[in-house]
Amino acid sequence: MKRYALVALLACIASPAFADKNADDAKWIGDCVIENKDEKQAADVVTKYCTCMNNQMSDNESRSITEWEKANPKVMEQCSKESGWKSK
Question: Over pLDDT 70: what percentage of the chain?
């Protein structure tokens, strides 16, 4: 599983979605990708999802994306749909 997380993280860093992101955003998105490694989704889907969630959050937010999504189910649903997240 560590290999998957590393591959997913590298995919995130190489993604065009990261072009305009600062190091803080990259860290939050990378953490989200790692936290979702067991969700049986393609790495690009997880990256898109985490990027979408990060973009919806305030720059002053202190909770992780995973914590924040639980309090914002409508945004979670929107980002799931945009990213192509497949329900179980």
Answer: 75
Side chain identity at 11, as an amino acid letter?
A: A
Tokens matching residue 7: 């591959």
50: its two tokens: 């985490």
Residue 68: C-alpha distances to residues 13, 40, 46 (Å)? 22, 21, 16
C-alpha dihedral sign at 70, 80, 2, 21: negative
What are 69's two structure tokens?
């999504």
Q: What is the pTM of this model?
A: 0.74
- pLDDT value at position 53? 96
Cα separation, 47 vs 41, whole angstroms? 10
